[in-house]
Amino acid sequence: MLQTPFHEMLFPRLTLLVALAASAVANFRISAPSADVWWVAKSVNTLTWDCKDPAAEPTFTVLIANKDPKFLIAPFALIAIQDNLECSKTIQEDQSPLPPGKGYTIQFANPLNQSDVYTTSQKFEIKPFGSLYPTTTHRFSAPSATLDFNV
Predict the structure, then answer these.
(1) Of 47, 56, 57, 132, whose CB count within 10 A is highest?
(2) What is the pTM of this model?
(3) How far apart (Å, rounded) are the C-alpha atoms in residues 32 and 16?
(4) What is the mean pLDDT of residues 70-81?
């Protein structure tokens, strides 16, 4: 009896799992901050994301990153474990003690392995303390239930 080697059976299954995992987080999107919605240093800022995607991870770590080492040498954890269903989070001034600058991104990552990044925001700017906030922001609402009463 001829047996198929283990790695030949395992490889197609692993490929399928990786493809499914990649597609599962593809629509997990951070809407603010973004290129048009900046943050202000030493101020209260808002983080929003699309929480309606059923394929999104239920919890994640919120990191802020900047490839320019004069701002950050490694991603900085803003929130250790965030529940996806909240759809937005207010970031207090003491949670993000970062200098004004360009090129920041928000990352949602695996709480057990922060190098496993689920999604990354657009690059955004942290403006100096006292700057005005943008006039328009993008917000997502929480999922809602519809009740239908047939009388």
Answers:
(1) 47
(2) 0.72
(3) 32
(4) 94
